[in-house]
Write a structure and sequence with these properties.
alpha+beta, 4-stranded antiparallel beta sheet, 1 helix, 4 strands
Amino acid sequence: MRYNVEIMELRRGSQTLTVAQEFVGGVARYIGRVDGRACVQSPTKEGAVCSLLRRLAYSRII
């Protein structure tokens, strides 16, 4: 069985933002990471991207 793994990566200065599809408990989820640390998860790619950007906008990570 093969899985289509989708990964989106964005570099911003010294930070790396990544959204990747992973299987959590047998369910496909999109996980948003900053520098390899998982920050957000969503059932949709768009939701994970929006949540990751929103989290960065309201945090001191930027």
